Amino acid sequence: MRPADRALIFLTLAGAGFATCFLDATRLRAAAANDANGMATLVARLHLTDLALFTEARYTRHPSQADLHSPFQDHPQALEHFPTGSLIAPPAGLTRTTSEVGAGETAK
Amino acid sequence: MKLWLARQRYLIDFTLASLARRKTRNLGLLFVYTVLVFMLASVTLYSHALRQEAARVLANSPEVIVQRMVAGRHDLIPPGYIEKIGRIRGVQTREARLWGYYYDAVTKANYTFMVPAQGAPAGGEIIVGPALERSRGLAKNNGISFRSYSGKLHTFVVADVLPQASELVSADLVLMSDESFRAFFDYPAGHYTDIALSVANPLEVRNVALKLAAALPDARPILREEVLRTYASIFDWREGIVLALLSAAILAFGILAWDKASGLSAEEKREIGILKAIGWETGDVISMKFWEGLLVSLTAFLLGFVAAYAHVFHFAASLFGPVLKGWAVLYPRFQLTPQIDGLQVATLFFFTVVPYAAAVLVPIWKAAITDPDSVMRG
Question: Which residue is closest to A105 within chain B, CA to CA?
């Protein structure tokens, strides 16, 4: 067999592997549909708002529910000290300058 | 057409023979290139799947959560507060939620104690999340004691364990009855943690929030779309951090490719000179190098992507998972459902395959248009 044919067969096989990823993704999605529905039902039944990914502090367990003061609860200039905090984006309000933030807005 | 195909096959034959002459160098390049695609594809596949999972799961969370703020901090909902919300038009149902945190010194982890609106366990019984079941070695009908913040020891019987499939949202949950919750936390009667609202018309949600803020100035409405945005930004941020760390590798590969692109080795120059001297045209030399670039970059892309897919969805992204997921004492065990974004794959393809193929062509074109004699003499 010529080297060109071998190379093309190899690329075709790699291309088939690439296409298989998409088929496998569809298969896994279908297989996980029941679990996903169960999870969605639980979220609706318990009125859950957050993923249980980071449980170390209340503002990392429920980042969507925490007020902006909670990571700095010790005093206003306290550094946030939980490890997850270094990997979660700071809320948009905190990265704005004081002049851009209206009175009382930091609590929202 | 047949002639063209035959010509391309001969060109590929020649290209492969040329690559084989510098086997170690080219295999090394292919390996580094594949690893780079693998890393980039792993990060994008994982982050996209995690973002989609969060969006899908939280799509059923309450449309509006109302918190009460006192001095900029979250405070309890006092009696009579819920009745005021009922008068706002557009609000379909309002349910007061009771939940809080408990730090367990045994596992050194925080649990979320919650009272479900429907299907609450009987007094003295609890339903626990799967991570809690694992960390405390619990089973159905086991007893467990927690020391409350007032110092009293409370004993509960595990009535049930939440399904493992729901661990992503329920890992640390402890569900209990209203009475047990209030007794455990010494929660004042008639007070609640916050309020979940459902709004009949999804287009009205923002208006309801505005009306709420006007009617109850101390209320902080949190919309479902804000929750979804929070999670999207968390995973965007994390993806950005990993990509920033990987940028060193991307830069190193860029230098490698640039080095290859900006200067041809004396051996390559001589090869081009000989080819031109024996009658190859400039177009043939460029076609040959085009095939070289395409074969290397396409092989690296396909192998890198397939390896990344297997790594993320069949081996739980063991290399990048800890950075992208975060960590905690009670960490949920979950398998991500694959979500592949076509646009993301196309972008990855464009930024990995095209620059390399182009980088290979430019110096060859420069060498191929010069006189064979001067090219061979170097």
Answer: B72
**Strand duo B64-70 + B73-75: pairing:** antiparallel
Residue A66's domain spans which residues?
58-107
B255, B349: one domain: yes
Task: Report yes or no on A62 lying in a domain.
Answer: yes
Q: Do A61 and B332 touch (CB under 8 A)?
A: no
Q: Which two tokens stand for residue B264?
A: 């041809």
Q: What is the average pLDDT score of chain B?
A: 86
Helix (H, G, I), strand (E, B) or coil at B293: helix
Contacts of A28 in chain B (CB under 8 A): 313, 337-338
Instruction: Please name the member of A52, A61, A64 whose beta carbon is closest to the beta carbon of B230.
Output: A64
Residues A66 and A32 in one domain: no
Facing B337 at nearest CB: one of A15, A22, A29: A29
pLDDT at residue B127, as a whole number: 95
* Predicted pLDDT at B327: 63
- Given B192, B212, B241, the domain boundary residue is B192
| Structural domains of chain A, count | 2
Task: With CB atoms and an 8 Å threshold, state whether B110 touches A5.
Answer: no
User: Residue B108: exposed, middle, or buried by beta-carbon count in 10 A (0-12, 13-18, 19+)?
Assistant: exposed
- B142 shares a domain with B265: no
